[in-house]
Sequence to fold (102 residues):
Amino acid sequence: MAGTEPSSTSRRTLRAGIIVGGVGISVMLLSNLFLQNFGATTFNGENAFFITLTQIYLLAPLACLPFSAALVSAALVMRHIDATKFDRDRSVEQQSADSSRT
Fold:
């Protein structure tokens, strides 16, 4: 019964959403430790690399978490569509079987 299993696209999308969300939460939880060791505490022109690294690190959770939510939502919609197609196909088969019996 191939219709009962979720499609590989929805599984990959769900897995990617969970991974991106995990990365976003990890970055958020480790931000204090990271910024104390590598982050820029003064924003002068001499440490442009560390300023850029700090800004990217601070913006990563803001990008990862909504994108993760979008991926997980898309996977759930894909699963719902697959289930709806399976139910519709099953009901059509059942109706055709019932009409052939009479």
In short: Residues 8-101 form one domain. Residues 18 and 101 are 48 Å apart (CA to CA). The helical segments are 8-29, 31-37, 48-101.
